[in-house]
């Protein structure tokens, strides 16, 4: 029976496409840089749909990549989604107040969410955020 199944899988085109190939070398994965200071690299994620809690329905999980220490920040939103501005407010209240400014944020949120988060953090901390393209001569002439 096992021999028949193996032979069928080897001859089936669809089975060959869905089966993982162990012979090919995949590209190497590079780990993210971890700084030697605590709370400079963080991983941020949301636990949502906590309908069984009456006053909080989202938990923001923030983990230090170096020490693996974590903060669980609970909050409430009406529509089960949290904005980047609200996240920036929570980060300032619970992370920056305790651990100082961050260098890296790793999250499963999209690029626009992270951009608005950094923009909101800089605005609330009175940091001028100047974004420019790499080859803009008027701004980047000293490094040329």
Summarize the structure.
With 144 residues, the chain is α+β, with helices and mostly antiparallel strands.
DSSP, total strands: 4
Beginning-to-end CA distance, first to last residue? 70 Å
CATH superfamily of the domain at 41-124: Ribonuclease H-like superfamily/Ribonuclease H
Beta-strand share of residues: 15-25%
Strand order of the largest sheet: 3-2-1-4
Q: Provide the CATH architecture of the domain at 41-124.
A: 2-Layer Sandwich
Task: Characterise this structure.
- This protein has helices at 2-11, 13-18, 84-99, 111-124, 137-140, and strands at 41-47, 58-64, 70-75, 104-107.
- The protein is an alpha+beta fold and 144 residues long.
- It has a four-stranded mixed β-sheet with strand order 3-2-1-4, covered by helices on one side.
- Mean pLDDT is 76; it is low at 138-144.
């Amino acid at each position: 029976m096992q021999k028949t199944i193996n032979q069928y899988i080897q001859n089936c085109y669809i089975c060959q496409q869905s089966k993982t190939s162990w012979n090919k070398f995949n590209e190497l994965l590079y780990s993210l840089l971890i700084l030697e200071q605590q709370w400079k690299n963080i991983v941020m994620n949301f636990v949502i749909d906590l309908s069984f809690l009456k006053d909080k329905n989202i938990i923001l999980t923030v983990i230090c990549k170096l020490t693996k220490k974590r903060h669980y920040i609970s909050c409430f939103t009406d529509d089960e989604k949290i904005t980047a501005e609200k996240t920036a407010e929570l980060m300032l209240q619970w992370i920056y107040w305790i651990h100082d400014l961050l260098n890296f944020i790793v999250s499963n949120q999209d690029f626009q969410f992270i951009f608005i988060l950094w923009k909101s953090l800089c605005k609330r901390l009175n940091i001028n955020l100047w974004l420019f393209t790499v080859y803009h001569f008027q701004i980047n002439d000293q490094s040329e």
